[in-house]
Amino acid sequence: MELIAPGHHLYTGPDGTWRSCDPQERFARLSGPADLLERMRDQAYAGGADPELEPLAAVLRERGVLTSARREPVRRITVRVTGEGPVAAETARLFEAVPDVAVVRHEPTETGSGTGTGSEADVVVACAGWLTDERWRRLDASGTVWHRCHVEGTRLVLGPMTVPGATASYRDLRGRRLAASPLPDELAALWARLDDGAAGKVPLPPLRWPNAGAVCLAAGLLVNDVLTWRDTGLPATGSFQLVVDPATGTVDRHPVLPLPVA
Question: Does domain 77-255 have CATH number 3.40.50.720?
Answer without folding.
Answer: yes
